[in-house]
Design brief:
Number of domains of chain A: 3
Oligomer: heterodimer
Distance between the termini of chain B: 62 Å
Helix content of chain B: 25-40%
Number of strands of chain B: 12
Radius of gyration of chain A: 22 Å
Number of domains of chain B: 1
Largest sheet of chain B: 8 strands, mixed
Shape of chain A: globular
Distance between the termini of chain A: 20 Å
Order of helices and strands of chain A: HHHHHHHHHHHHEEEEHHHHHHHHHHHH
CATH class of chain B: Alpha Beta
Order of helices and strands of chain B: HEHEEHHEEHEHHEEHHHEHEEEHH
Structural class of chain A: mainly alpha
Number of helices of chain A: 24
Number of strands of chain A: 4
Strand order of the largest sheet of chain B: 8-7-9-3-10-11-6-12
Largest sheet of chain A: 2 strands, antiparallel
CATH topology of chain B: Alkaline Phosphatase, subunit A
Chain lengths: 417, 432
Amino acid sequence: MQLMEERDSVKWLHRRAGFGLPPAQMRAAIDRGFVAELDRLLDRSAIADAVAADPWDNDSLPFDPMDAPSRRYAVGRWIDAMVATEQPLVDRMTWLWHGHFVSAIDKVRVARFMVDQIRLLRSAGLGDTRTLVRSLTIDPAMAVYLDLRTSTEEVPNENYSRELLELFTLGEGSYTEDDVQAGAAALSGWALDRGTAELVFRPRRHDDQPQRFLGVEGVHDLDTVIDAVMAHPALPLFLAGTITQELLGENDADLVAELARDFASSGFVIADLVRAALTTGAERVAAPLVLGPLPWLVIAVRTSAARLEVAQATRLLRTAGQLPMLPPNVAGWSGGAAWFNASSLVARANLAALVAADATDEDVLAAAEGDDMDVLADALGLPAAGFDDQSRAALNAAPSGRDRLAVAFVTPEFMIA
Amino acid sequence: MRPKFDRRQFIGMGVSAGATVAVGVALSSCSGATRASEATSTTASTTTSATSATTGSTVVPSKGSSRNMQFGGRRLVVVQLDGGNDLLNTLPPTAGRYHDMRPSLALADDDVLSLTGVDDAGLHPSLSPLLGAWNAGQLALIRGIGFAVPNRSHFVSMDRWWRADQLTQPGWLGRVVDGLADEPSPLFGTALGASAPVLSGATRQPTVIGSSGSFRWVDIDPEWIVALSAGNEGSDLAGQARHAFSRTVQAVDDFAEITGGEATSDELAGREGGASIADGLATAAQLLASDAGAQLVVVSASGFDTHAGQLPVHASLLTDLAEGVASFMTSMATAGLADDVLLVVTSEFGRRVVENGSGGCDHGAGGFSMAIGSAVQGGMYGEVDLDDLLDGDVRPSVAPQALFTNCLDWLGIDAATTLGSRDDDLALLNGV
């Protein structure tokens, strides 16, 4: 089995499972080595501290669906937090789950609900899967986005029940239409209390009739639904497949099966699954993965210590197709080579120019002024192979300095991790 | 100091010397959301000679075929209503059971527009702009379209529509693009508003323009981007990125030339930001009438997943659709292309017959499509029988492949080869 060079594996780890690092910090990380760095990223008490440092101030988040400034604040603060994070795996996993357990602010409207959901993903995204899935099921933003708050015994709404099974936990083909309807009945009766911003259970609106759901008899409420989902054999495979796809850029059946087995025997602790996937990824020279516009932007900003004006960036991120809190639909962003669409590439190039203009990291700026493209590649956290001949030609076509740095951000080498 | 580039310079640089750039002063009169952009006045400085477009039309007539046209010059537009448009309220049945099953959601009989020649269904009042085409016999309304064994998942269902139910193959229009001898110009297949997998081939991808107002280089010189893609592109992800950049540079040039560097709106589709289907179709009209070789355009519109509070939302969505389509057809006629365009509307499924408790309805089966154009044999196609439901849904009576077959007929492409068979055929075209 081909092993990644130690230096490259640390860089890979930070581009895949974090948001990159400026050169000085990357050198320190490389000195520590891959294993120590992965331990740092998964350190429980450091994670707890990072989660406790909440990026948002509730005073700026009124429960007002008409309040546009709070929506900009919610998104802007989140991007700032990803740029500034000292525990990047937490925030990268939060981002990953945001694209998986999807809600979108255009339907949810109330920014505070979306923020509370992101807070939940930050605090529970590396923990126990059952807690995460149960909490999301009665999360206010989710209940608005997938209509669970309107589902009653008399007229159940299937939207959440279907997506819980299809997109969140089991995958298409692992459940029947009867399961969707049974799940909707058992999950009926949760209403949104807009005063407390919590979902409250209203027994009189709930269908407590025992259902057969995913082959389990007697399912009738939230906990029995979650128990049946957690007991389903498709769940570990589906979630391990999601993690390998998102972190390793591949979906090899044997690899997924192995990770799923370990995930199940760990008691579905997500941090253990992530550790196993990243360890395997560094060992097998993981497949290339196109960075979506958001992680790509955050990596560029962090790496070059750019003083980015978030309002300007969010406008372009929207054009690039990946504004946080606004996934296109309940399946999240499609990713892969689809990110090479014309609209998104134009927005990325414009963002690249913006970041390059605001970069402050001295190592990065010096490398962009110099003529050694290997030095520039290293400063930007790229593996030792650096830029290929075509990218070098493009970099040389641009004047040295910030223009060259902008081009570097849109080279395939920088856009693909 | 780094040189300061601005957008105007680059639009100027991007367009080949001496090219005429039409100023984007002609905004769609019908889209409602259009407004004079603050940048419109500055646009004039970029033009070498301003072509004055006819007021009220979005379209600059074609300057001739500087690029080879495919399909004998015929164009196809697909409007994709994402989320599952509700068939029953789009074409409300006259049967009493419609009201029984939708006590709060059914449209009152008095509000429903009657369709000449049809006695078992009418038209949602928001669709009144389409009555002219109906009365002219150029509008085919299709009810109950869907796969015989339906799937209520958006994503499975959309995928089946895009791939004509052959899930190991690329999009059915993408297959057409793959089959062309030479790679066509970048705007030949264009997706407006969102990506359009129906246009994605195995080897060739459409140009996606999510937001026309921002489809331009700002502080980066496209010459550097071109340098990224010079030489061998390769087939790996990096090679795909290089190829995409090279196509994108040309697409931005072409698009700036067509729209004068300014768009009708910041957004082409999607609800957030006031974007509309009408804006998307106004841009589609500009593309199709230009000489940039645009012939296949997909306009994506979201918001049709009406699980809750459907009535007002659906009414405004259908208004947007109908006004946009009517305005588009007028633009095509103005450009002398009335006989060269076919427009079809699709959606991944219809919705449940019985309403839910949220003032909406859940995912269903048999849905709504339509086709409009001078080659269309107007009329009502397909069946809805509320006494013969499939698991609570309208039973599909028309296979989507039947509509695709006629679209391929329109383009002169052999449907049997492209779709594997032409067993399904709506025969909704006259003499094609």
